[in-house]
Amino acid sequence: MRSNRLAKWLISGPPLFYLLLFFAIPSAIMAFAAFRFPGDYGGLMPFVDVDPQTGARQVLINLDNYADFLTFENFQRFFEDPIYFELFLKSFWYAGITTVICIVLAYPLAWLIARSPKKTRDLLVLLVILPFWSNFLIRVYAWMIILGPQSYFSQALNGLLAVFGIEPVSLLFSQFAVIIGLVYVHLPFMVLPLYANLEKHDMALLDAAQDLGANAWQRFWKVTWPLSLPGIWAGTALVFIPALGMFAIPDLLGGTDSMMIGNLIKQQFLDSRDWPFGSVLSIMLTLAVLLLAAFAGWAGSRGKDKR
Amino acid sequence: MKKVSPWVWGAAALVYLFLYLPLAIVVVFSFNDSALNAEWVGFTFKWYRMLFNDPVMLEAALHTLVIGLVTCVAATVLGTLAGLAMYRWRLRLLPALVLIPIAIPEILTGVSLLIFFVMLNMTLGLVSITLSHIAFCIGFVAIVVRSRLQGMDESLVEAARDLGASPLTAFRAVTLPLIMPGIIAGALMAFTLSIDDFVISFFTAGVGSNTLPLEIYSRVKVPMKLNPEVNAVSTLLMLLTLSLIMIVSKVAPSALRAQ
């Protein structure tokens, strides 16, 4: 019994120690940093301030950062400087649109994979995963080439628009480009859980629906779609959450008006060097993610009950 | 089995095209004899030649490789231990610490590590990047190893114990060989994740220590500087990742599915 306990500590101890040191403690420090003042040259001001003359010690704790952020419910503040709240809403909008488009694109793929013979199935899954394993920056960069003003695609599109007398549009550095980038990078995260779900469906239900006179659309909407909701929720969690925290895609594909929370956090940490406010934003993002994860878990389990 | 409707086939084919066309364009333009990524002019290897004579890129590649190897070794050891512990005992803290870094946006891990390293007065550089990479790779290795353990036949270990093997011997002679494909898959996954990581490196790199993804980012960020050299290095990086993934899919196909 004692040796069992020793083994338990010997085995779980090292990874536990490492993750405490390099994940849990840094996260705790970040939550704590949000209550502090930014230093004169960026970073953080010392936590304890010692007066050089009297030697008196004063602990510096700043509650304003939370107050500043949380007063968005205060209408006055909202109309004065609603920029942060708006940025949060916009990020949610980007992540939401991305999720919806991913669902639409993932469905035919997942359906095809789930209904393929066993041999082809593994190959088709691998074909979905492969691009996902190539570096994410390269995948974003590829869209910079495609959407660039000189590209064949842009020229063809603008040529087509000119036929209808529409002014040429710039595809790169637009919200459209950001959403394409987000969809492209996150699509596999939707396909895989959806495929895993569709694979388990009982096809006899579709036959029964057909015998009862349901057309293809009714069979999808009344049978397949409700049954696939747990897969959809799992995929939504996997797409929405990383998309919400993204900063590189808006940086590379977006214009000045397509900033997301991630860009603001990055800005606070690396450009304006206001770490306490950056920490507040990070904590807000964490809270948003936790709420979403809890909601996705709840909705997913509800979908299971219905079965 | 019912046939898949041709409409679904068509739509799925278009989505596959959407997945592969952008990558194909990067590869094709890496052989294009024009400094602009717009028109096909002619075939050339000059961007690859330029790449192998670019000291900044070569240094970044070396950094990436060293960080990747150290991360791979450390994360595999720690991740395997975590996987074993999570399979063997009902733990609370460890599974949470293993899974949360995977589930939250990477930027959060990146900025909290930045604050942490700066507070410790650590010079940001290769060491801080490596320590961070190990932290986020442990979870991936642990999940792969645990799923391999769950698929293992426990009676084999019991048989070894009945035949008089000590727990340690039973582990070394039975368990370890059985889960080895999972460990190898986890190791390759940690290496791939490390060489591909951009977000966490971005925050923990400091000045003057570049990795390939960071170098690619800084070069593509300014569109004026768009340089087909990036196409070439991207193509090579894709090739490297592709071969690693092919190995994983041979060694432990289930590892890819665990993703």
What name goes with the CATH superfamily of chain B?
Answer: MetI-like
Helix content of chain A: over 70%
User: What's the CATH architecture of chain B?
Assistant: Orthogonal Bundle
Task: Give the CA-CA distance, first to last residue of chain B.
Answer: 28 Å
- Helix percent band of chain B: over 70%
What is the element string of chain B, with H for helices and E for strands?
HHHHHHHHHHHH
- H/E series of chain A, N to C? HEEHHHHHHHHHHHH
Spatial separation of the terminal alpha carbons of chain A: 44 Å
Number of domains of chain A: 1
Extended strand count of chain B: 0
How many β-strand stretches of chain A? 2
Query: Stretches of chain B where pLDDT falls below 50 for ≥5 residues?
Result: none
The averaged pLDDT of chain B comes out at: 83
| Beta-strand share of residues of chain A | under 5%
Q: Which consecutive residue ranges of chain A, at least 5 long each, have pLDDT under 50?
A: 69-79
Output the CATH topology of chain A. MetI-like fold
Task: Give structural attributes.
heterodimer, A: about 300 residues, mainly alpha, MetI-like fold, two-stranded antiparallel ribbon, 13 helices, about 75% helix, globular, B: about 260 residues, 12 helices, about 0% strand
How are the elements arranged and paired?
The complex is a heterodimer of chains A (307) and B (259).
Chain A lengths: L1 H32 L14 E3 L6 E3 L4 H7 L4 H6 L2 H32 L3 H16 L2 H12 L4 H12 L11 H25 L3 H9 L4 H29 L3 H6 L7 H11 L3 H32 L1
Antiparallel strand pairs in A: 1-2
Chain B lengths: L5 H24 L16 H6 L3 H34 L4 H11 L2 H14 L6 H25 L3 H9 L4 H30 L2 H6 L7 H10 L6 H24 L1 H6 L1
Description of the structure:
- Chain A is mostly helical and 307 residues long.
- Chain A has one domain (82-306): MetI-like fold.
- Helices cover 75% and strands 2% of the residues of chain A.
- Chain A is built from 13 helices and two strands; from the N terminus they run αββαααααααααααα.
- Chain A has helices spanning 2-33, 64-70, 75-80, 83-114, 118-133, 136-147, 152-163, 175-199, 203-211, 216-244, 248-253, 261-271, 275-306; strands spanning 48-50, 57-59.
- In chain A, strands 1-2 form a two-stranded antiparallel ribbon.
- In chain A, strand 1 and strand 2 form a beta hairpin.
- In chain A, helix 4 (83-114) crosses helix 8 (175-199).
- The longest helix of chain A is centred in the first third of the chain and has 32 residues, at 2-33.
- Chain A is globular.
- Residues 69-79 of chain A have low confidence and may be disordered.
- With 259 residues, chain B is mainly alpha-helical.
- Chain B has a single domain, classed as MetI-like fold, CATH 1.10.3720.10.
- Chain B is built from twelve helices and no strands.
- Chain B has helices spanning 6-29, 46-51, 55-88, 93-103, 106-119, 126-150, 154-162, 167-196, 199-204, 212-221, 228-251, 253-258.
- In chain B, helix 6 packs across helix 8 (167-196).
- The model of chain B has no long low-confidence stretch (mean pLDDT 83).
- At the A-B interface, helix 1, helix 4, helix 5, helix 6 and helix 8 of A face helix 1, helix 3, helix 4, helix 5 and helix 6 of B.
- Chain A: Pfam families: BPD_transp_1.
- Chain A: Keywords: Cell membrane, Membrane, Transmembrane, Transmembrane helix, Transport.
